[in-house]
Amino acid sequence: MSLKIKYLDHQNGSSKNKAIFLAKESKISDFKGIFDDKINQKILKFLKNNKKKDENKVLSLNLEFDQRLIMILINKKNDSLESEKLGANFYDYIKKNNVNDVLVLGSNFSTIKNSIKFNEFIHGVELKAYEFNLYKTKKNKKEININILKNKNQLNKNTKYKLDALLNGINFTRDLVSEPGNILHPDEYTKRLIKLRKYGLKVTVYDQKKLKKLGCNALLGVGQGSIRGSYLVTIEWKGNKSKSKPLAFVGKGVCFDTGGYSLKPARFMEDMTYDMAGSAAVVGLMKTLALRKAKINAVGAVGLVENMVSGNAQRPGDIVRSYSGKTIEVLNTDAEGRLVLADALTFTEKKFKPKLMVDLATLTGAIIVSLGSEYAGLFSNDDKLSKELLEAGERVDEKLWRMPLHKNFDKLMDSKNADMQNINYVGGAGSTTAAQFLQRFIINKTPWAHLDIAGMAFSKYAGALNSGGATGYGVRLLNKFIEDNYE
């Protein structure tokens, strides 16, 4: 099913179904010249009968034959997020009720024209309409046409420009996460990242040969069992002409995770195609920043590997020397994401000397036990950075919950045979000890935050702004974080 949105300067008579925004204080005089008296009286009666209805709801009134009037009940004042959610509700409603063609009367009512952020409303429609059907041989050719009666000059062009860039970045992330492992392996992923150069991004690929020379043995160890390559890819955006330190974003890109010799159970292993969602969020963010010409300097770094079982795969008990020089005893090959991030974090910090670093990873199942699919876990060595991320998450409904880091957890990750081990076998605090492990690879005390997004990157059921499947979590959050604090 596809969505088509058109902006009209006048009614063209093509849409039988119409949609209007209503507030509780709307009056019949608001509709004069738009509907005839018969329809006006129906609207007025509806308003009287629905005074106690919840606001920000979508309802409908049958007119005649196959015509329908869709009424979008709104608050006196909707912020950006509520406007987006209302747009998503509207799309849900017309899809479920098979309304394939509708004319939205956007700004005709003086009493409510400032009660809805119209660009954000349409953005919500577009976010909700995402589908991944690339491999369906019989595609749903049905179209939903939304015609909007709104003068283009009344649209905030700058806002629309930014929201279109954000939508593009989010959907790119969703597409990457939705791809199966046999298609989006590290080799193919790297090729797709190279194509981002056309947006003005500087993309640098470090392949196995270069990584071995650098000493990124923690990352390489994870991918050594695969016939595919292992890579560290950096993506730079220079939107600020000054030589200011960049903001750095690092993502875990395990394109498929069998668990290695610490093999995962067969049930739900197919979901491990989304174990690269942290990297996809970083990539989607960088594309967004380039498309909207963000006035900042930023760098994204993604470690791309495949964790497979073979005669060459890493063994439990192996000891590797990371890029930082610290040694790691790999007690569990399924605790692989932290090994990838260990090298990616230290490399990014050393090479780019960033103002701050945020990493994203589908790192632990324990965070899902703790927070379910409502919050991602936030771990950080910096209170200011944590506050900025938490506030940004609330504003875009990509919520975070701060979890503890403490030196007492370090002893759970200490190894008798190396500087540290990659898993806590004592039990408990699985997400915290993973974050505590990562913190050891922040060498220069750079402000750093780790976002464990295991419960948020992929949804079996639809959310407020997504239709189920890959959510694109992290792109909206970090884009807002940048907008509010660093532009």
Tell me what the structure shows.
Helices cover 32% and strands 22% of the residues. With 487 residues, the chain is an alpha/beta fold. A hairpin with a 5-residue loop joins strand 3 (57-62) and strand 4. The strands form four sheets. The chain has an eight-stranded mixed sheet, with helices on both faces. A six-stranded mixed sheet has the order 1-6-5-2-4-3, with helices on both faces. The two termini are 37 Å apart. Helix 2 packs across helix 3. The protein is built from 13 helices and 19 strands. The mean pLDDT is 92. The chain folds into two domains: 2-155, Leucine Aminopeptidase, subunit E, domain 1, CATH 3.40.220.10; 162-485, Aminopeptidase (3-Layer(aba) Sandwich), CATH 3.40.630.
